[in-house]
Design brief:
There is one protein chain. By secondary structure, the protein is an alpha+beta fold. It folds into 4 domains: 183 residues, PAS domain (Beta-Lactamase, 2-Layer Sandwich), CATH 3.30.450.20; 103 residues, PAS domain (Beta-Lactamase, 2-Layer Sandwich); 189 residues, GAF domain (Beta-Lactamase, 2-Layer Sandwich); 232 residues, Phosphatase 2c, domain 1, CATH 3.60.40.10. Helix content is 32%, strand content 24%. The strands form 5 sheets. The protein has a 6-stranded antiparallel beta sheet with strand order 3-2-1-6-5-4, with helices on both faces. Strands 8-7-11-10-9 form a 5-stranded antiparallel beta sheet, sandwiched between helices. Strands 13-12-16-15-14 form a 5-stranded antiparallel beta sheet. It is elongated and about 145 Å long. The N terminus is likely disordered.
């Protein structure tokens, strides 16, 4: 038995305009025309361009028109109420031959059809107020200059039962019917012989539509008549279908919802069109467009149902193929969007764990219901760390953190093979029951049951020719699909991108660790100085380089003094860090020689400009003299464009050390030279218990924030610290309160407390 795919909704009515020249289009147009009734005005059927078709049904025994579609009702100007005599209807539309001459009595095509004769097709003229317009929508001139609506039509018709026999066995006693179809012609000038034969053939083909008439007055609304076209379409002869409801055409794959809609429309006595999968007598399936319309008598009583059937299998298959192609194209676009989003998300992550976590979140729910990402620590894959998990149902993520419920041999063996061979594996169907997956582990079996696993893919993440990790995708019952090789291709593409991002993140982490080691090697270990408590912090900026040009230093000097310096070389890279290391070494050497702070900065400026150590830098250098009998120390400082240090006196008063400022190192060529100006110094006495705070501009110069407000916040934080706050407490509280939400610059922070001993 042939089977066809489900077409989904299929539009009823005429086929597309590009197929109007095919005879089947004529037939479908005619079938749609039969749907019109007196209470509704459906869209007019089209036969050629925008012409319209009129359809009549005649009661042969009573010689009356008992049914007319909307177009036919307009011909006499909607002035006649059905039923109406055939002669009265002909007079109302002024039916004549094409030359405008009346037909001899009883010899018009309409009279002959009403007498039960089959008329293959003859041209006639209509002169009524509602004559059918031509292709341009204008009435046809009658030839005498009159403006009355005139149209030329091709009239064809046939009896639905043989009046000679009375058809008592097939159709409701002697009340036989005839169908009349009026096909508009373009105009008198077009009635050449070839065109008349062409239109006649069109009309004859239109009458070849499959028609049925049922009798709703009898139980189960059985068929009372079918035309030969129905027999050819379905393979059922007339004597096998009369007296049976037409549901015998249905089969196992017929849409029951569509059948129910038809039944409801018949109960409500309204027209309906549906597309059903029906079956011929030999069992072959075909798509059948069924149009059913009620026929009412003059008093509004239901007399019959007229059905028209069309084999639209080819149209349905073409539509299904079109939909499949559109779906495939949309799926391809969705996959490209997913790959682009995944690439963007993962390449912006610098941390290995972040890459794995983002990848799992990207995969769910687009590719999988569950996803785990394992990082291989060793090249042979002996050790694995699960760094990424995601689940459609968040409650399932707790079961994915460990490999218990997923540790089946069906997955572990492909995982090991994927590591060895570096290629993905597909497991189309997983065991449905946990006992089959974990026969020796009841706990894992129960967790497996909770996960409702259906299908899985194990895909290696490759980076520069080696397996870095494994991704496992799962679908779940009841809605998860069974994975196919097409899914495996997409998963492999995603995992390949993840592998590159993971490899880059691993390399970055190695470089960052090396940079951090370099940075810490350049920063000094704080010495223990009698009479001073010292603490410092260095915080890297958000760019993640772990290196920069900020530095701090505390240097005990030979004469018992202590030097303290904080500086910032322009830049946030290895070059800035290298320049910082050189500058710190130069400053330490000049400070060790006993130079005053201003002279130390001047000589550093000369080397910066002469040896091209750095582009520019800021620095502040302070010298604390030896402790006096009361524990106080003399403080002398010089500042080269650096934020002013803060002094908190024992009484709690905060002093900003900004007495003298000078340009940055390397900013002014003549500064610090013999012929140029020298940096000034400031000197004050710091009592025992005083607190000094040095810092770089990463705390105060923040993009999008006011620098003065940031400086005020820092000063207020330092001033509010208690007198007994240790330097460790100071640097921790300052960072906690004043650290920006986004750290775009490095921070160096140094706190010194004078304890009075020495």
């Amino acid at each position: 038995m042939n089977r066809y795919p489900d077409p989904g909704p299929v539009a009823a009515g005429p086929p597309p305009e590009q197929a109007v020249d095919r005879a089947v289009d004529q037939a479908v147009a005619l079938s749609t025309g039969l749907l019109g009734d007196r209470s509704a005005t459906p869209p007019m059927p089209h036969v050629r361009g925008d012409t319209r078709v009129a359809v009549l049904m005649i009661d042969i025994s009573a010689r009356r028109v008992v049914y007319a579609n909307t177009t036919a009702l307009e011909l006499p100007g909607n002035e006649l109420a059905l039923p109406v005599g055939v002669r009265e209807w002909a007079d109302a539309v002024r039916l004549t031959d094409p030359d405008g001459r009346p037909h001899p009595a009883g010899d018009s095509p309409l009279d002959r059809i009403a007498a039960g004769e089959q008329v293959p097709g003859e041209p006639v003229a209509l002169h009524g107020p509602g004559a059918v317009p031509d292709r341009d929508g204008a009435p046809v001139d009658g030839g005498d200059g009159a403006t009355a609506a005139t149209s030329l039509v091709w009239m064809t018709g046939f009896a639905l039962a043989d009046p000679a026999t009375g058809a008592t066995d097939t159709y409701d006693g002697a009340r036989s019917r005839a169908l009349v179809v009026l096909l508009p012609l373009a105009g008198p000038g077009d009635l050449d012989r070839d065109r008349m034969e062409f239109l006649r053939d069109r009309a004859v083909l239109a009458t070849e539509m499959s028609f049925t008439i049922s009798d709703p007055q009898r139980e189960d609304d059985p068929l009372a008549w079918v035309n030969p076209s129905f027999e050819r379409l379905t393979g059922y002869p007339l004597d096998e279908v009369v007296g049976r409801n037409c549901r015998f055409l249905q089969g196992p794959n017929t849409d029951r919802a569509a059948v129910a809609r038809i039944s409801r429309a018949l109960r409500e006595r309204r027209p309906i069109t549906e597309v059903l999968l029906n079956y011929r007598r030999d069992g072959t399936a075909f798509w059948n467009q069924i149009s059913v319309s009620p026929v009412l008598d003059g008093e509004g009583r239901l007399v019959n149902f007229v059905g028209v059937q069309s084999d639209v299998t080819e149209r349905v298959i073409v539509e299904q193929e079109r939909r499949a192609a559109l779906a495939e194209a949309e799926e391809a676009r969705a996959q490209l969007r997913l790959l682009a989003e995944a690439t963007t998300q993962m390449t912006s992550a610098f941390d290995v764990g972040d890459v794995c976590s983002r990848f799992a979140r990207i995969a769910v729910p687009e590719v999988a219901d569950l996803c785990t990402v394992d990082l291989l620590d060793a090249p042979d894959g002996d050790s694995r760390r699960r760094l990424g998990v995601a689940a459609r149902d968040v409650a399932d993520e707790g079961l994915l953190v460990r490999s218990g419920p997923l540790g089946t041999t069906l997955l572990e063996e492909p995982a090991a093979a994927a590591v060895r061979a570096g290629r993905p594996y597909l497991i189309g169907e997983l065991p449905e029951h946990g006992g089959d997956a974990h026969p020796d582990d009841p706990v894992a079996a129960e967790e497996y049951e909770r996960l409702r696993l259906r299908s899985a893919m194990v895909v290696p993440m490759l980076g520069r020719g080696r397996v870095l990790g494994l991704v496992t995708f799962h679908t779940q019952f009841p809605y998860g699909r069974r994975y196919t090789h097409r899914d495996l291709h997409l998963a492999s593409d995603l995992a390949g991108r993840a592998g590159l991002a993971l490899d880059n993140a691993r390399l970055y982490e190695v470089e960052r660790a090396a940079a951090a080691t370099l940075q810490h090697s350049l920063l000094p270990a704080l010495p223990e100085v009698p009479g001073l408590h010292v603490a410092a912090r260095y915080v890297v900026g958000a760019d993640g380089n772990q290196v920069g040009g900020d530095w701090y230093d505390v240097l005990p000097l030979p004469d018992g003094s202590v030097g303290a310096a904080v500086g910032d070389v322009v830049g946030h890279d290895l070059a800035a860090a290298a320049a910082m290391g050189q500058l710190r070494g130069v400053l330490r050497s000049y400070a060790w020689g006993g130079d005053r702070p201003g002279s130390v900065l001047d000589r550093c400026d000369q080397l910066v400009q002469g040896l091209d150590i750095a582009a520019m830098a800021t620095a502040v250098y302070a010298r604390l003299g030896p402790a006096g009998p009361d524990g106080s120390r003399e403080l002398t400082y010089a500042n080269a464009g650096h934020p002013a240090p803060l002094l908190v006196e024992p009484g709690g008063e905060l002093v900003r050390l900004d007495a003298h400022h000078s340009p940055m190192l390397g900013a002014v060529p003549e500064f610090g030279h013999a012929s140029g100006p020298n940096r000034d110094e400031a000197t004050l006495t710091c009592a025992a218990g005083s607190l000094l705070v040095f810092y770089t501009d990463g705390l105060t110069d923040v993009v999008g924030e006011d620098a003065d407000h940031r400086a005020e916040l820092l000063e207020r934080t330092v001033a509010e610290l208690g007198r007994d706050a240790t330097p460790e407490t100071v640097v921790e509280r300052v960072l906690e309160t004043c650290r920006p939400d986004r750290l775009d610059d490095d921070i160096a922070l140094l706190a010194i407390r004078l304890d009075g001993c020495g």
